[in-house]
Design goal:
By secondary structure, the chain is an alpha+beta fold.
Length: 115
C-alpha cells in the first residue's frame, strides 16, 4: 500500500465490515488465493470487487464480498499519530491518489522507495 502504508512501519486498526463501509477507496483485509491481503477497493460490481494496492501499477486482485474479512478503521504512524480513514482529509488524499495518472504514480512510487 505504499506510499500511504509502509510495510513494518505503520500499523492499522481493523473493524468489522458492513455494507456501508464497503465502498470504493476503502482499504480492506481480504482472502486471495490462500493469503490475507490489505488493499484498496477500486471497483464494486454487484458482489464482485476489484482490489489494488496503492503501490501496484496495473496489478489487480478480484474477489467477492464474502472474501472481505475487515476494513481499516485507522492508521497509526511510527510517531504514534492516528489517522482516521473516515476523515475528510484521508478520503480526499485517497481520491487524489486514485485520480493521479499511472505514469505520475509510478514516478512518486519510485522516489518513495528510494527514501
Amino acid at each position: 500500500m505504499r506510499p500511504w502504508l509502509r510495510d513494518g512501519q505503520e500499523k492499522v486498526i481493523l473493524k468489522a465490515h458492513t455494507a456501508e463501509n464497503i465502498k470504493i477507496g476503502a482499504i480492506a483485509l481480504f482472502r486471495y488465493k490462500g493469503r490475507h491481503i490489505l488493499h484498496r477497493i477500486i471497483n464494486i460490481n454487484g458482489n464482485n470487487i476489484t482490489f489494488a494496492g496503492d503501490g501496484n501499477i496495473g496489478i489487480y486482485e478480484y474477489g467477492t464480498m464474502q472474501d472481505i474479512i475487515a476494513v481499516v478503521k485507522c492508521i497509526i504512524t511510527p510517531k504514534g499519530r492516528i489517522i482516521e480513514c473516515d476523515s475528510r482529509i484521508w478520503r480526499v488524499k485517497s481520491r487524489l491518489w486514485l485520480a493521479t495518472p499511472l505514469i505520475v504514480r509510478r514516478v512518486i512510487l519510485g522516489i518513495s522507495r528510494r527514501l
